[in-house]
Recover the amino acids of this structure.
């Protein structure tokens, strides 16, 4: 009887290097599970550690090996290349906007180790402040998750898990160069001794300004990609004074200078810190308490006078607590609460800074009904002091497993409370129109229904899933209105939007070291005029392809080759001309495909030499619209990673 | 339920001392003098090297400068024709596509008013002269000026231009800009450029010294020290001048 394998299928891929000679029997379950990271622990779906194959909430995992072999220099590149249905585009002033299967940056919650990030531009967090050096893995939940995470987790959660010190010492250094004088340097030093460990990550990136859309008669949205330089430093210190008790402290600094105007570059800084205590009270009780401080500033540097003038600050203090108790039959009860103070001082306000406090409490029950069945339910209450807003959100997930098939189904509620900016903004947009906030804005809510099936057969894994989202009171901006002082737009709630999503993925692994993955995502927004996403809507079809070959030539020399590509369909939508009489403007962004090939030489286990060519088919958009890929054509990248602790061994 | 939460939150805020915190490390930032404190006029005129500060944020007028009297006078840009047309003065609406201009509308206006005595005039970053010629130099500071090299510089006189002096930016996003058909000095107007091909506009300055040769033969050296206020508002000009050179 054939031994059928029951394995769950993540939509990410790990190119393992354990090649097997052809005379061996077919790949065994354990190594396939390892290869597909199914035995990795994930936490985001339930706020408790679960194996990826067991978690009742479908989770996509981008592992450390995925990160290394994707040659992504930023989180943006990484998410876009690893997950279908994720696209980054520009909004006005070349600020970045994210779209995850129809939900834009404002409705997708980005966390670092479960902590929120302060500051936003165009409703998106600053993705460049996420230090790639400290990223161990990324867990992505598509679909609402506000029952566990609160506001903004309406369309998904992206949780970036940082590295931990796991050996006496480790030193990783890397350097990477690419077109347009793009350089990236980074390093991580981790030390661990008895009950104390420390991990320090530093990275520096810079890129020069370059021109696109050189023909003046082409109607491009931008003609210059502005250069910048960034610094990212973060440190995390842990101390285990007693068995079962871990106390940790962390601090981080981020700096970016962007050359939009050479005489007044804009600067972005972030200062963050935190304290955390984790206490395993008994084998079945665990308590966590943490405090976080996050301050995100924006300023303009006036080169002529040498003055750095701040015009924006978002400061968030949070206190969080989480308690887990394992009951009989491995059921888990989770209870938690958070408190946050949110302070916003921005040039977009005419008045003084605004503050609000928010508090929440939630409970989750993870019920292990039987070997085949598991159900998780959660309920959360959120309160926001400004506007006296209260919300109750729920979630229910079920997982059924039989032999090699796993089915998951769930309902999750999501919401997004209006931000202080959206309520109190009063800003003159270059004399063309004003933007008014709306203090009476309601929270946007979403109800997400999802269903997925995963099946493993021999060397193959299949996933199929679909979801439907009902979005109500979506926070958006109105069309042009006329008031006493002239034309203006304001923030409004848009009723009744729907987003249907579907995903399919196939993964395969062969003895000879070849691995393959094909993932497809479909998004359909059903809206009446308005779009679910603020700026550029999701492209209906997207396909991510990855083919890899790994081979060990000798004990201390191996090679990885990865060919990856993504294909996007065209998208049409309606925008508005930004001048009187502000007529509607029809926009169509054409379909496109981008492919990349990467060769990694692994020498003596500690030296990794990367050469990659991005955009190998030399695609360049005719019209550089906000939603077009920012590329001039093929781009050569060369990088070197050194793991000194491996070399010294 | 709400009240309980509000009280818990408030107690927490007070207890943890978070309620009054508005951020750390403010010392790394500088204070900027608000725009209202910008002092327009001539400064340091006891010597021949002095500073001229102008609020040229408005697109609606020309500011006429008299170097001898050290005086300034504003005169509005006409938008209608009330008297006899001089055959040239007009507001011209252009569609701007990179270097290409397509005329959309031509509105004849009255002649631009000028005071009796003036040497040069400024409209935002544009400059015209009263019969002078200007050369752009390679020097970046007034103190670097080498008088013996001035004779060999390439001096340019004013020229009529119907796509330089911006009067109406309301349709900037559609690249439809209103201009005054006016004389401008092609050399000196280069000192600051505003590129609005993809809004918001991008500014750049040459940082060079410009030599102005007045009709009397006298020379003046000018350098745009700053084209924005301390808060970064564009159009507040600080110009270093040496006159007579």
């Amino acid at each position: 009887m054939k031994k059928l394998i029951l394995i769950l299928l993540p939509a990410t891929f790990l190119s393992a290097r354990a090649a097997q000679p052809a005379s061996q029997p077919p790949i065994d379950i354990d190594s396939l599970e390892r290869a597909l990271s199914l035995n990795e622990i994930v936490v985001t779906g339930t706020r408790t550690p679960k194996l990826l194959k067991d978690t009742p909430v479908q989770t996509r995992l981008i592992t450390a090996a995925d990160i290394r072999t994707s040659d992504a220099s930023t989180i943006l590149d990484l998410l876009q290349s690893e997950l279908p249905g994720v696209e980054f585009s520009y909004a006005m002033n070349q600020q970045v906007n994210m779209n995850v299967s129809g939900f834009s940056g404002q409705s997708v919650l980005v966390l670092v180790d479960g902590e929120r990030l302060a500051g936003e531009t165009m409703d998106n967090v600053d993705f460049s402040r996420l230090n790639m050096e400290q990223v161990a893995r990324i867990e992505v939940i598509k679909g609402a998750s506000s029952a566990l995470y609160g506001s903004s987790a309406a369309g998904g959660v992206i949780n970036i898990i940082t590295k931990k010190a796991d050996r006496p010492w480790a030193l990783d250094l890397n350097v990477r160069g690419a077109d347009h004088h793009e350089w990236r340097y980074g390093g991580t030093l981790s030390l661990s001794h008895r009950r104390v460990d420390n991990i320090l990550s530093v990275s520096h990136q810079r890129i020069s300004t370059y021109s696109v859309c050189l023909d003046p008669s082409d109607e491009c949205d931008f003609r210059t990609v502005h250069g910048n330089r960034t610094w990212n430093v973060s440190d995390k210190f842990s101390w285990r004074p007693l068995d079962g008790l871990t106390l940790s402290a962390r601090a981080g600094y981020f700096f970016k200078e962007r050359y939009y105007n050479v005489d007044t570059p804009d600067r972005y800084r972030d200062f963050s810190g935190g304290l955390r205590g984790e206490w395993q009270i008994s084998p079945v009780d665990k308590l966590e308490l943490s405090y976080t401080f996050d301050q995100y500033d924006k300023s303009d540097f006036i080169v002529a006078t040498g003055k750095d003038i701040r015009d924006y600050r978002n400061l968030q203090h949070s206190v969080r607590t989480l308690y887990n108790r394992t009951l009989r039959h491995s059921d888990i009860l989770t209870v938690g609460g958070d408190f946050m103070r949110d302070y916003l001082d921005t040039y977009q306000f005419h008045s003084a800074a605004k503050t609000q406090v928010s508090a929440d409490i939630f409970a989750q029950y993870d019920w292990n009904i039987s070997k085949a069945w598991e159900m998780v339910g959660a309920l959360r209450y959120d309160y926001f002091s400004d506007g006296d807003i209260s919300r109750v959100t729920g979630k229910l997930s079920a997982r059924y497993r039989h032999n090699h098939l796993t089915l998951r189904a769930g309902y999750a509620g999501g919401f997004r409370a209006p931000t202080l900016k959206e309520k109190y903004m009063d800003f003159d947009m270059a004399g063309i129109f004003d933007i008014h906030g709306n203090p009476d804005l309601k929270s946007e809510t979403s109800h997400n229904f999802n269903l997925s099936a995963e099946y493993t057969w021999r060397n193959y894994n299949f996933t199929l899933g679909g979801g439907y989202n009902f979005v109500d009171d979506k926070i958006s901006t109105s069309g042009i209105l006329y008031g006493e002082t002239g034309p203006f737009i304001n923030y409004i709630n848009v009723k009744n939007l729907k987003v249907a999503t579907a995903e399919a993925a196939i993964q395969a692994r062969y003895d000879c070291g070849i691995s393959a993955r094909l993932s497809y995502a479909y998004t359909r927004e059903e809206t009446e005029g308005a779009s679910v996403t603020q700026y550029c809507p999701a492209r209906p079809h997207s396909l991510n392809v990855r083919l890899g070959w790994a081979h060990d030539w000798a004990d201390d020399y191996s090679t990885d080759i990865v060919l990856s590509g993504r294909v996007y369909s065209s998208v049409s939508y309606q925008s508005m001309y930004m001048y009187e009489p502000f007529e509607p403007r029809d926009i169509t962004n054409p379909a496109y495909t981008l492919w990349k090939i990467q060769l990694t030489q692994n020498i003596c286990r500690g030296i990794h030499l990367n050469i990659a060519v991005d955009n190998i088919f030399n695609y360049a958009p005719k019209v550089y619209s906000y939603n077009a890929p920012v590329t001039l054509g093929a781009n050569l990248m060369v990088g070197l990673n050194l793991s000194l602790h491996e070399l010294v061994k | 339920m709400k009240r309980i939460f509000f009280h818990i939150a408030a107690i927490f805020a007070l207890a943890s001392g978070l309620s009054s915190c508005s951020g750390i490390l403010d010392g790394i930032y500088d204070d900027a003098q608000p725009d209202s404190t910008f002092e327009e006029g001539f400064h340091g005129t006891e010597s021949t090297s002095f500073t001229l500060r102008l609020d040229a944020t408005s697109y609606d007028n020309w500011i006429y400068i008299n170097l001898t009297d050290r005086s300034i006078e504003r005169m509005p840009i006409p938008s209608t024709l009330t008297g006899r047309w001089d055959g040239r003065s007009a507001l011209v609406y252009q569609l701007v596509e990179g270097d290409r201009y397509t005329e959309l509308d031509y509105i004849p206006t009255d002649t631009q008013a000028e005071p009796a005595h003036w040497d040069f005039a400024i409209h935002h970053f544009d400059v015209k002269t009263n019969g002078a010629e200007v050369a752009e130099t390679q020097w970046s500071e007034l103190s670097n000026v080498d008088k013996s090299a001035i004779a060999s510089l390439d001096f340019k006189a004013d020229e009529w231009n119907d796509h330089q002096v911006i009067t109406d930016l309301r349709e900037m996003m559609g690249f439809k800009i209103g201009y005054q058909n006016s004389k401008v000095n092609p050399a000196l107007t280069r000192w600051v450029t505003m590129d609005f091909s993809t809004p918001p506009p991008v500014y750049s300055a040459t940082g060079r010294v410009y030599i102005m040769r007045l009709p009397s033969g006298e020379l003046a050296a000018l350098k745009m020290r700053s084209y924005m206020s301390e808060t970064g508002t564009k159009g507040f000009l600080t110009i270093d001048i040496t006159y007579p050179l």
